[in-house]
Each structure stands twice: as C-alpha cells, then as structure tokens.
Design a protein that fits this description.
- The complex is a heterodimer of chains A (416) and B (301).
- By secondary structure, chain A is α+β, with helices and mostly antiparallel strands.
- Chain A folds into 3 domains: 206 residues, P-loop containing nucleotide triphosphate hydrolases (Rossmann fold, 3-Layer(aba) Sandwich); 88 residues, Elongation Factor Tu (Ef-tu), domain 3; 106 residues, Beta Barrel (Elongation Factor Tu (Ef-tu), domain 3).
- Helix content of chain A is 17%, strand content 35%.
- Chain A contains 7 helices and 22 strands.
- In chain A, the strands form 4 sheets. Chain A has a 7-stranded antiparallel beta sheet, with no helix packed on it.
- The radius of gyration of chain A is 24 Å and the shape is globular.
- Chain B is of the alpha/beta class and 301 residues long.
- Chain B has 2 domains: 194 residues, Rossmann fold, CATH 3.40.50.620; 79 residues, no CATH class.
- Chain B has 8 helices and 10 strands.
- Chain B has a 6-stranded mixed beta sheet with strand order 3-2-1-4-6-5, sandwiched between helices.
- In chain B, a hairpin with a 2-residue loop joins strand 7 and strand 8.
- The longest helix of chain B is centred in the N-terminal third of the chain and has 19 residues.
- Chain B starts with 7 loop residues before the first helix and ends with a helix.
- About 3% of the residues of chain B have low confidence.
- Classes of the chains: A alpha+beta (416), B alpha/beta (301).
- Chains A and B meet through helix 2, helix 3, strand 2, helix 4 and strand 9 of A and helix 1 and helix 2 of B.
- The structure holds guanosine-5'-diphosphate and magnesium ion.
- The site of guanosine-5'-diphosphate has 19 residues of chain A, from helix 1.
Chain lengths: 416, 301
C-alpha cells in the first residue's frame, strides 16, 4: 500500500474544512471520542447538524474566528491507499502557510464555490499550484446543492477553468461536482447528478497514478551525516548517510561528489542490516565508495554521466514569507537540502500580480509577494531546475538576524 | 521501465531517518526524549537505523515522574544495556524536593504537569539545543498543526502564530542562544502505523501494553491502575480486571482499557476496530478543547 499526500485550496468559506471532515466522516475515520467532542461543541450548522469543519480547525484562534490559519494535517486510509491531507488556509494573508502545506503534496484539490465560479482566489491558488509544480489537480465544484445540482453551471465553470489551466500549463486536471455538506460525490456517488459520469473524489484519489519509474539520470543524494564508528573491528568503516533525493543508484555506479568534482564507484549500499543492490528516490540509505575521498555533510553524490547544474548565480522564482521585506543589502543564508551557504539577492527581475498573473516591475518584495529574482551564493550550488527535478531544484532563505525562514526559492535558470 | 513503489511504512521510516540525521547534522547538543512508551521506543529503533554501526549522536533523556509503571523502568534499563547508549534521567522528585514545583493535592492529583519544569531544567542544565520527541500529528488537534522542527523560546514555549514555514523536506534548525527545537520525526505516523511498524520490526515492548490482570478503580469513567500514587478514598472500589494500556505515562493519569489482547496481532486488530483515540485514554487532555495547545504553549513536550 502506498501513501498519497494532497492538499486543499480554496477561498475562505468555499468548504475546505467541511470537505475534509466529510472525507474523514464518510470513510469512518473519526473516532468515537472525537465525534463526541464534535457533537458537544457549540459550533453547529444552521440546520443543527454537526459542523465537520471543526475537525481540522485545531487552534483556539481558529475555532473562535471560524477560519483556518495554519496548515492542519489529517490522516486516513482506505483499503487501497493511505492519505495525508494538508488543510491549508485560503486567505491571501496566509499564503505562506498554504505553500508549506503544498510543497510536499503530489496532488491539489482546488475548491470552487459553484455559485461564484472561478474568482480571483481560484486564479491565485491555481497559479501557486503551477508554480510549485504539483503533478495532479482536482477541481471540486462545491455547494452543488445550492445551484440545483445543475449540469449547466458545472459546464460553464469547467470551460472557464480549462482556459485558465491552459494559461498556467497545468497538466493533469480533473473536474468533480460535489456537495461537501451533503456528501454528494465526495465518498459516495451522488444520486442528484446522474449527468456526471466520473468517479467520486475518494475513488479518484484512490486510483490516481502517482508512481514514477526509476531514473538513473537524476540520481542525487545529499550527504547528511558520515557514519564512522572508529571502533577496532570497524576501523575503516566510512558510510555516507542520506536520503536519495531523486533518481536511483546501483552498486558499481560511477558517482561524482559535488562541489569538489571527485569521482568514485559505489561499492556497497546499506539500509541498516540490508545490503540492496539498488536504491531509489525517497529511501534513506548509507553508501560506501571504493575510494577514500574527503566527503562531508552538505556535499551531494550524483550520477557521473548526468551532472546537475553548478553555479553561484541563479535565477529563481521566489515566494516571500516574512513580515520583514526583502533587503538587497544584507546577506541571507540559503539552505538547499543539507547544504547551507551565504547568499545575496543580486536583482529583482519582476513581481507577479497573482490575481491577474501579470508581471510587474518591482523594487521591493513583501510578505506573500511572488516573483523572480537573481541570487548570488558564496559556494556554487549543485542543483537542477525545478521543472526538471523538484527535489533538487528548491531551497529556502533564512534571515540570520531572526533565523526565520523568509523565502521559498524555485530554481529556474543559470544567470550570467 | 517498471515502476517502483515505496510501501507506506518504508516511506514513513525513510522520512523519520532523514529527520534524525538532519538533527545530528544541524545541532551541537541534541537529545532524544525517551518516555518508555511505544512512540519513543520506535524512535530508538529509527535511531539505530539512522546511525548504526556508529553511536547515536545524542543521549537518551528520561523525565522520571517517580510515578512510573515499574515495567517501564525495567524495560528502559534493559534497553539501555542492549543499545549501549547514554541515559540521562531528570527527576520530578528532585524538582519537588528543591521546591521548584509543588505536588498537586486532591483526588485527581498527578505529576504529569510538573514534568514540564523538570524537562526545562534538564534541557537548560545540559545545554540541549534540540530535543527529539515521539509526538504524532494524529494524536491531537493542536499537534496536527505543529511543524516537524518546532522552535521553542527560552521558556520552552510554543507560539503557534509564529511557526516557521516548513518547505519541501528542508528543515531550518537555526536558533538563537537559549532557544531550542523540538523535533518530531514521526509526526506523520498514525497510532496504527506505529503498531504495524513494531510488528514488522519485531520490536519488544514493556509488558503493560499487553493484556494482564491488575487491580483497577474507575475514575471519571476511566480505568486507573490502583497504586500508591493515586489518591484513593473509601468511595473508590478496587476491582481486578484484565486490562492493557494504550499509552504509557504517569501512573496517576494513564487509563487502561479492558482487553484480552495479549499478542501484537490482537492489539492491532483491536485498534483497527476501536473507536476511541489513544489520547482519549489520557485524563490530562479531557480538561478543555484547547488543553494540549495551552500545555504546549507552556513548554510541554
Ligand atoms: N450548502 C452547502 N454549504 C456548504 C458546503 N460545503 C461547505 N458549506 C458551508 O460553507 C461554510 C464554510 O465552510 P468551511 O468548510 O468552514 O470553509 P473553509 O473556509 O473553506 O474551510 C460552512 O458554513 C459550511 O457549512 C456545501 O457543499 N453546501
Ligand atoms: Mg477551513
């Protein structure tokens, strides 16, 4: 059984929390004592039924204000798959929290209120989904009960969204008409929409293909830790521990250590007491090389025949996540997987108006701003373009005055 | 090319190992908080997978309330001997003797909340900059919102409004002096995942997790082990029942469930069917809807 991480996006009151509550409720994933707490809560729907949204609004401020502020993670499983849901806030003010929830997801559910159709927020969320390169998109037209379960409404909104999807180059987009409140097409197929021939949301989630084939070209493993027992019997033991970031490694593969550029051959692969002959993206492993070379944390091992980019000047898309605006005069820390290096912002190329998707000239970058910048790093980075290899194409900026994570970076090009 | 597919337990394991190695790489003085419960026992197994044949780059730290199940302590000492790693014990009794905390009075008295002070003192005395804990997001609503690397101020406080964005699998462990980070490698595991992992890895557990005969009393609708640590009076009726524990904490606040499950397979079957969450068996969470959020803001695990 495998694991699918997805997140929900939509504007305030589109029904994200209700939808997640519905998924959990109809898959029987809510435990009796949680249900009891739910029934006792004084936040109820207008008709007196329990408000499923409370399940995900975990912070006091959220319950008081009836909105989602931070990402909540929920877990459930069916016979086919395990799911991790990130319920992310829709409000523009919490864009950074939405990106937090979205960055590790393979699939996005975009909620659209069937009464309102595609609105500015839908455009903004879809833009973020495209920026972050989320592989699969499901557009759920919610509150179908409030538009008489109308096929016409569904078709009109779907057509409008398809234009947007083309503009944003979203690849795999699926449309499902639902009512999170009443349960239509969430887990169980709807009796109210015989004109809809597709799967319910849950069936779609269970069946969507999220596996990838092994890809030796993209073999990359950042070294997190060097295992050196230095005991008598293991005197020469030297293992490079890390998680395969992307691609696959085989015993006897020729690998290059970056940034130094030294190469060697994989002698042995260990996963604790196992010695597999190949390992793939996602596995935490220990590699042994034939030659004794100087490797430490922050270095990355890659397939020698397919080296990543190497540069100190990089063009990147950026989402600014701190209340202090970007400052071109200070030195930030850039963390790219296990590697940390100093970094300055050379140039602000443009900002994107995320409601209209227009590029604008920009002189500053404030909280939740998105656009393109050029950075210069102290050490050369061994990276891939985000579009080719998400796992090795992203980094964060840290403000060393506050130690806060202030920006998300997605590498797009080598700058000159 | 044929597709490959990581089983969910392998994926959760790999993620946890990655997080443990980030802790090792990013911090000067980390520690692993070991409670003797199944979640921290799972962490120890994951640490073995992350660092063997090397040593752990951190000691284990046990905050001892003095009101432990005897079985937990026996288990702890045996385990430490087997893995050959360092154990540091922070004692709530010492905190009481030093006058730093005051023992609660009354029927529902428990040392659970006093632990926070001992924990913060132990962190300060040893200069720990990162504490690895076995909390999971499925346990409780406030935990569902916490980051994997969760920064605490000098007073151990969690501020949910000031959480750092946590992007991709990149963990920012940078802190100022005096602050520390709580790290939760099994954030994304559910209770059932932990049990399935324990079965798959053949991990030994303290015996109180399995059904056994014991004297219990019923308090606020829950079964509590009769012990000198529980303030009992003539209203309390001691009964002898076959029970097991779903979490292991202080004896005065950990409730038992009636059960015949004395094998892992039976426990897993019972949990799969059971409709009570494991925190439902902790009196400390029953107090209010925001009980956990408030305790975390105050420095709790
Ligand atoms: N009629 C109707 N109301 C809905 C539906 N889904 C959600 N709602 C209501 O819309 C409001 C906002 O829902 P909520 O889940 O909190 O939205 P969120 O802000 O996106 O998390 C609540 O009053 C819900 O009961 C639906 O399918 N039909
Ligand atoms: Mg919500």
């Amino acid at each position: 059984m495998n694991l699918l991480k997805f997140f929900t996006a939509g504007s305030v009151d589109d029904g994200k929390s209700t939808l997640i509550g519905r998924l959990l409720y109809d898959t029987d994933s809510i435990l009796a004592d949680q249900l009891e707490a739910l029934q006792q809560s004084n936040r109820k729907n207008d008709d007196g039924s329990i408000d499923l949204a409370i399940l995900t609004d975990g912070l006091r401020a959220e319950r008081e204000q009836g909105i989602t502020i931070d990402v909540a993670y929920k877990y459930f499983q069916t016979e086919k798959r395990k799911f991790i849901i990130a319920d992310t806030p829709g409000h523009i003010q919490y864009t950074r929290n939405m990106i937090t929830g979205a960055s590790t997801a393979k699939l996005a559910i975009i909620l659209v209120d069937a009464r309102n159709g595609v609105i500015e927020q839908t455009i903004r969320h879809s833009y973020l989904v495209s920026l972050l390169g989320i592989e699969h998109v499901v557009v759920c037209l919610n509150k179908m009960d409030m538009v008489d379960y109308s096929e016409e409404v569904f078709n009109t909104i779907t057509d409008r969204y398809k234009t947007l999807a083309t503009d944003l180059s979203l690849k795999d987009v699926t449309f499902i008409p639902i009512s999170a409140l009443k349960g239509d097409n969430v887990v169980n197929e709807s009796e109210h929409m015989p004109w809809y021939k597709g799967q319910s949301l849950l069936h779609f989630l269970e069946n969507v293909d999220v596996e990838t084939g092994p890809d030796y070209n993209l073999a990359r493993m950042p070294v997190q830790w060097v295992v050196r027992p230095q005991t008598d019997e293991l005197h020469d033991y030297r293992g490079y521990a890390g998680r395969v970031l992307s691609g696959s490694f085989n015993v006897n593969d020729k690998v290059t250590v970056l940034p130094s550029g030294t190469s060697s051959v994989i002698e042995r692969i260990e996963i604790f007491d196992q010695t597999p002959s190949e390992v793939h993206a996602g596995q935490s492993v220990t590699l042994h090389l034939k030659d004794n070379i100087d490797i430490s944390r922050g270095d990355v091992l890659v397939n020698s025949d397919h080296l990543p980019q190497s540069s100190q000047l990089i063009e990147a898309d950026v989402c600014w996540m701190d209340t202090r605006p970007l400052d071109e005069h200070i030195t930030y820390l850039l963390q790219h997987n296990s590697k940390v290096t100093k970094c300055k912002v050379r140039e602000i190329t443009h900002k994107v108006d995320i409601n209209t998707l227009e590029k604008q000239e920009a002189y500053d970058f404030k909280l939740n701003d998105i656009g393109r910048i050029v950075i210069k790093t102290a050490d050369a980075l061994a990276f891939d373009f985000y579009t080719d290899n998400k796992a090795n194409g992203a980094a964060i900026l840290i403000d060393s005055r506050t130690n806060l994570t202030v920006a998300a970076l997605m590498f797009r090009a080598v700058a000159d | 090319m044929s597709k490959y597919n990581l089983d969910y337990l392998d994926e959760l394991e790999a993620e946890a190992i990655h997080i443990l190695r980030e802790v090792a790489g990013q911090f000067e003085k980390p520690a692993l908080l070991f409670s003797g419960g199944k979640d921290s026992i799972t962490l120890v197994r994951l640490a073995e997978k992350a660092f063997r044949p090397g040593k752990f780059p951190f000691p284990l730290v046990h905050i001892d309330t003095g009101h432990n199940f005897e079985e937990t302590i026996t288990y702890r000492d045996k385990m430490i001997e087997r893995i050959g790693e360092k154990l540091i014990v922070g004692s709530v009794q010492d905190s009481i003797d030093q006058g730093k905390v005051v023992e609660q009075k009354g029927k529902n008295a428990s040392r659970n909340s006093l632990q926070t002070v001992t924990l913060l003192d132990t962190i300060a005395a040893n200069g720990f900059d990162a504490c690895i804990g076995g909390a999971r997001r499925d346990e409780e609503k406030a935990r569902a919102k916490e980051r994997i690397f969760s920064v605490r101020d000098e007073f151990g406080q969690w501020d949910p409004k000031r959480q750092r964005p946590e992007l991709w699998n990149i963990y920012n462990g940078k802190i100022h002096k005096g602050e520390n980070v709580r790290v939760f490698p099994i954030s994304n595991w559910t209770e059932l995942d932990v049990w399935n992992y324990i079965r798959r890895e053949n991990i030994e557990l303290p015996s109180i997790y399995f059904a056994h005969e014991r004297d219990v009393i019923t308090r606020n609708g829950q079964l509590m082990a009769a012990s000198p640590f529980l303030n009992m009076d003539e209203d309390d009726i001691v009964e002898h029942k076959k029970v097991r524990f779903r979490t292991v904490g202080d004896m005065s606040c950990t409730a038992a469930v009636e059960s015949d499950a004395d094998q892992l397979d039976d426990i897993i079957a019972e949990i799969s069917e059971s409709k009570i969450s494991e925190r439902g068996a902790r009196m400390d969470d029953k107090v209010s809807e925001a009980a956990m959020e408030d305790r975390k803001k105050g420095g709790y695990f």
